[in-house]
Amino acid sequence: MKINRLMTLQVIAGIIASLGITSCSNTSTKGVSTATGWKINDKKGGFQYNTNYGDQQAPLGMVAIEGGTFTMGRVQDDVMYDWNNNPTQQYVQSFYMDETEVTNVMYNEYLYWLKTVFPPSEENYRHIYEGALPDTMVWRNRLGFSESLTTSYLRHPAYANYPVVGVSWVQANDFAKWRTDRVNEATLEKAGYLKKNAKILEAYGDNHFSTETYLAAPDAMYKGNRDIVFQGVRNKAKDGSKNIYATQEFGLFTAEFRLPTEAEWEYAAVGLIGKREYNSYKGRKKYPWDGSHTRTAKRDKLGDQMANFKQGRGDYGGISGWSTDGADITNQVKSYPPNDFGLYDMAGNVAEWVADVYRPSITSEDNDFNYFRGNVYYKNKIGPDGKVEIVTAETIVYDTLPNGKIKARNLPGTVAQVLVDESDTFLRQNFDASDNRAFKDGASRGSKGYNSPEHTILADENGDVVRKYDTNNRTSLVNNQSRVYKGGSWKDRAYWLDPASRRFYAEDQATDFIGFRCAMTKVGAKPSKKRSKN
Known about the structure:
Elements: H1 9-19, E1 28-29, E2 32-33, E3 62-65, E4 68-72, E5 88-92, E6 95-98, H2 104-117, H3 126-132, H4 147-152, H5 169-191, H6 198-201, H7 211-216, H8 226-229, H9 262-270, E7 276-277, E8 280-281, E9 351-357, E10 378-380, E11 398-400, E12 406-408, E13 417-419, H10 422-425, E14 456-459, E15 465-468, E16 482-486, E17 502-506, E18 514-515, E19 519-521
Parallel strand pairs: 9-18
Antiparallel strand pairs: 1-2, 3-6, 4-5, 6-19, 7-8, 9-16, 10-13, 11-12, 14-15, 16-17
């Protein structure tokens, strides 16, 4: 049998050159496999692999957060008597995080792409764009006048670099998925594996790039249009070989953009790296900055606030001519000093969604490494022909959320997903179910447990919406759709600026004080550089 992946040594060299990678790995010795003695990246064919992959570079707009151990939760008295942040020792793996919250201009780019690729004028696509729109009505108040913000805050260039608000947890997750695909699409185009400018000129409906589709079923990319997939310069090799797909072995694909876990967010916000010596921390920080006060001690800005928050009843920014935090509502990102990791607004401005499902208790007894509550495991859906199924305009499934908004379960052009089943969990020791959101959450089996009010939306025979409000007595406001948000906001008092504070909100709801930023897992080595004394 002839082993040929239609990949040349020159192509691999081109990948390495395009990425600027110079450091070596232990995969081979001088291009020879240490497992078999076979030549790797032989121009005649055979096994192809990027044997010269270097350290992962921080994505644009993100900063590297080296992982480590820290005390998660409050170690002082809980004056609010929430009892939901008892201290526990946790370890967080290295990751990347956006240096600022996602801004209005960033989110508007997302909306523009959706509106262009899935025109709302077409019935099949109408709810895709509408489901992504932020709720601008969050600015309204029964006894206040903020009507101008409902029409200007999201779109007007004056607010371009202000954090986006009115975005639900569900919408924030969809943005992160879209960002992953757009970054990978640009990378593959730059490396020569996709037709140049196809992402702008030819993306329409299910005819667009999806990372999952490219990796699982590359022949189905762009609805099987090989002229787009195979018109990159890498598909015009000098030896005549064509039809080359990039694979994970090339090291081109970025890790997924996502919401940070609660542990990651709190670890990054505290920024203890500035208070360490050798292998120990020197005390604890109450805020993302040094000291126990909210004002700066620097002489050039003496008295100014270190974050944007509510300083007292009826005081959102000081007096005229002496605005102590420079804002009344949100403020432009990077308006306040960053913390020791180089992250801006980890306290104040807007609170931020994190990935976790809310439960009052976090414990290190069950897990103390990359703690996260909210795992729901999926797998690619396989059709009768044994191939992965791709969502089309005709097979797209829409879900109606409790708030009445309609959301596409998967965008056309992406791989259809289903929950893992018994064939995936049988005899496993590390998990035995697809949905692990309520795993060991303190609710005894058979009890009501965490059961917030249930609201359903149905349609009658005429297609009119019928809203059903829950009337049963309930024991809790918490359920599997309750998501944690962290950090104080422009509407919060200083108490909530403590990174250990935690609150929750329904994942399909939005407010004028919650935004978000993205994170990404760091692949490979933990540190990016050699450690120093301080």
